[in-house]
Design goal:
Radius of gyration of chain A: 21 Å
Order of helices and strands of chain A: HHHHHHHHHHHHHH
Number of helices of chain A: 14
Largest sheet of chain B: 7 strands, mixed
Number of strands of chain A: 0
CATH architecture of the largest domain in chain B: 3-Layer(aba) Sandwich
Mean pLDDT of chain A: 81
Number of domains of chain A: 1
Number of helices of chain B: 16
InterPro entries (chain B): AAA+_ATPase, ABC_carbohydrate_import_ATPase, ABC_transporter-like_ATP-bd, ABC_transporter-like_CS, P-loop_NTPase
Subcellular location (chain B): Cell membrane
Number of domains of chain B: 2
Oligomer: heterodimer
Radius of gyration of chain B: 23 Å
Distance between the termini of chain A: 36 Å
Protein name (chain B): Nucleoside ABC transporter ATP-binding protein
Helix content of chain B: 25-40%
Pfam family, one (chain B): ABC_tran
Structural class of chain A: mainly alpha
Low-confidence stretches of chain A: none
GO cellular component, one term (chain B): plasma membrane
Number of strands of chain B: 23
CATH class of the largest domain in chain B: Alpha Beta
Chain lengths: 334, 509
Amino acid sequence: MIAGGALFALLGKDPVVAIRTIFWDPIFGEFAFYLRGQLLVKAGPLILIAVGLSLGFRAGIWNIGAEGQYIMGAVFGAAVGLAMFPTDSRWIFPVMIVAGAFGGWVWAMIPAILKTRFNTNEILVSLMLVYVAQTILSKAATGFLRNPEGMGFPGSRNFSGFPAARNAELIAGSGLHWGGVAAFIAVIGAYVLLQRHILGFQIKLAGQAPRAARFAGVAPTKLVVLCMGLSGALAGLAGMFEVTGPAGQISIDFASGYGFTAIIVAFLGRLNPVGILLAGLVMALTYVGGEMASTNLGLPSAAIQAFQGMLLFFLLAVDLLSNYRIRFLKGRAA
Amino acid sequence: MTNELLRIEGLTKAYPGVVANSDVSFAISPGEIHALLGENGAGKSTLVKMIYGLVKPDSGTMVLRGQPYTPARPSAARAAGVAMVFQHFSLFEALNVAENVALGMENPPPMRELAERIRAVSTEYGLPLDPARRVGDLSAGERQRVEIVRCLLQDPKLLIMDEPTSVLTPQEVDILFQTLRQLSAEGTAILYISHKLEEIRALCDGATILRRGKVVATCTPRDVSARDMAELMVGAVLNPPARAARRDWGDASPALEVAGLSAPSPIAFGTSLKNISFSVQRGEVLGIAGVAGNGQDELLLALSGELATDPGMIKAKGAPVGDLGPNARRALGFVAAPEDRLGHAAAPDMSLVENALLSGVVRKGLTKRGFIDWGATKNWAAEIVAQYDVRTPGTWVAARALSGGNLQKFLMGRELSQAPEVVIINQPTWGVDAAAAAFIRQEILNRAQDGAAVVVISQDLDDLLEVSDRFAALNEGRLTPTRPTEGLTVDEIGLMMGGAHGMEVAHHG
C-alpha cells in the first residue's frame, strides 16, 4: 500500500486521497449505496472463478485459462437462452445455468484431456484457449448471436428485455444476483470438500506429495479431469451469470479479465475458500475504487492495474520471506 | 591430555519442546575410531551436526587440536579438517563422478587434474572409482565411495560417518572397514555412527553411548557384548523376537503369488523387474535381501499396486490382482510400506492424523459416503502413537517434524495395525534403534501369526534373519530362488546378493 501510494504520488496525485478513494469511499463514501452493490457485482464472479482455480492449484494443476472458460460459459449460456427467445418459462434460467457451466467445463476439458492423454502442458494449452475463446466471442457478437433487431451493430439481444432468462438483482439495489449466491455456495462447498471430504484430502495430497498421493491410491488423471472440470464449470457459471446480469448482452468487449484477476484472488486468499471470499471482496474494492479514482482524480486505469499487481507481488514476497532467510554473499561464486 | 584431536565439553542444544543434547562431553584422539551410539532421538544427529557446523550449540565448547573450534557453517568445518559422509547421499545422478566431487569442493582444480587425484586417492584406499562414470549408473556401494573419496580429497583430520553400512553387502562392509582401518592407521580419526553393534565391536576403539540427549556410558566395544551395549542404549533389557510354531492354514492357493513378474521401472535411473516369481503362504514371512537399487522400490510398487502390471503376474488367493490400484488391493487385505518415508509413505507437511488417513482410509473405514470421520482417524492415530512408542508432542504434528526413527515407527504402526492379510514392507527397521527394531520385528511376526502373508524387503540382514522363514535376494531386478532361512550362512547370503559388485580389497605392502 505504501508502494502504491508512492506510485500515485509519482503520478502527481495526493497519495492519501487516492488510497482513500480506492479503499474507503466505495464502502463509506457518499456514493456508497451504489458502489457497495458494485462491490458484490465484481466480487461474485471473481470469487466463483477463484474458488474453482484454487482446487486445481492445490493439486498442482495450473488452469490459467479461466478467462476462456468464463467466456465460453457466457456464450453457451447466452446461446441457449437466446435460442428460446422470447418464450417464457421458469425453466429457461436453470437450463441456461447448466449450459453455462457446461460451456466452461467443455473448454477446461480440452487441456485436461490433452494433458492426461498426451502429457501436454495445461498452463500453455489453457492459456492459448483463452484467445480462441475471445475469437469465438467476437464471432458470436458479430455473427451468430447478433441481435436481429440491432440494426447491424455487434452485440446480442439484451437480457434485460428478456425476463425469463435474466439474472436480476435479488434485492433491489444490493447488487446481489444469482452469481453472488453461487459464489457463496461455492465457497462453502469448497470448504467442506477440502476439510471433510476424501476428495479434498486427495487434492491436497496430490499437491503436496505426488508420490504419497499415488501410494494413497489417487489416480492422477482422474484428479486432473476433476479439478480442471470443476474450475472450468465454475468459471463458466460466472460468465453466464455475468452475461445475463450486469453485462446484459454478449458483446465484443464482454471479457473483462475476471478470469485472470481470479488467479490473483486465489493466491491472495491463500488458496483457502474463506480467504478467497475476503480476497475477492478486497480485489473488487480495488476495481470499484480504482474506477472512482480514475474518474474523480484522473488516475490512469493502468496505475490501478499496477497497484493490483503490486498486491500480489508483495503477498508472494511475504510468503517467500517467511519461509526463507535472505543471505547476502560477498561476491563469491557458488 | 595433549594427545587429543577433538574435545567436546558440555555441549547443549535445545529445540522447542525437546532437549536434543544436554551437557555432552567426550574426546577423540588422532587415529581413533570412535563410535557414537544411541536410540533414535537420542541426539546423535544433532551432535554431529554441531561438530560439522550445521547447527549452533546453545552452550558448551569444542576444542580441535588445541584451538577453540566454533564452526559457523560446514565450509568452516571442512577448512578445519572435519569431513562428513551423510547417511543419504548428496550426489547428482546425471553428473559424473568427478563433477560430483568438484561440486563439493571450495576451489575445485581443473577437471583433468581432479580426475587424476580421484583415481589416485581411490586406488590408494582400495575404493576403485572411474571419475568419468555417471553417478546414476553406480551401485549404492560405489556411490558411497564417491562420497568418501570426496571427503578424503580434503585430507580430513576427522571423518564423520553416519550409518555408512546400511546400504552395503557384507563383502562391501569388509572393504569399507579395511579402508577405515587404513585411514585410522594414518592418523585420521573417525566418528562412526551406527546401529549395528557387531560392526562397532569389530571396528571401533571407543564408544560413547547417548540416551535422551545425555551421555550415559562410555565403553570399549571390544570388551563388551553387543547385547550389553544395546541395553545401555535403551536402558532396558532386550528380548529377541519370539516366534511360535507356524500353523498350517490349509489354504488351497497361496495368499500371495507372483509369477513371471516383469515391469519397466517408472523411476529415472531405476531397475526394471525381470521375471520375478515367488509365493507366500498365510503365516509365512519371505525375506528379500539385496543391495539398494536392485529393484526393491520397483518390486514394492508392483506389489502395492502403484505400478500396474499384467493381471496374472500377481495373484492373491489365486485371483489375479496385477492390474488393481493401491486402494483396490487394500480392500483385499494388502498393506504396503515403501522405503522412502517422507514424500512416498507420508506427506511431509501433513499431520500424523492426515498421514494415518492416507493409507488407512480403506481398511479402517474412515469415511462415510466420502466424508472423512476425523474423530475416528484421530483416535486411531493416537492409538498408533501410544502402541508403537512414537515420541511426538501430539498427533497434530507434521510428519516432517518427527525424527526418522519415530516416523518409521508411526508408519510401521499404521500399516501393521490394519489387520492385514498380505504385508509388504521395504526396510522395516530403517533408522530405528535396537529396541524399536525388536518391537517392529515382533509385530511383523505377530501379524504372520495372525495369518498374514508377509514379504519383507530389506538391506538389513538382521531383519531378514530374525523374521523370515524363507529367503531370497534381488540382484539387478532378478530374484534368486527362495531358500529356507535356517542354515544359511552370511557368506551364502552375500553370494545370493551378488557378491561385492566387483569391489576389491586394497592390497598393501
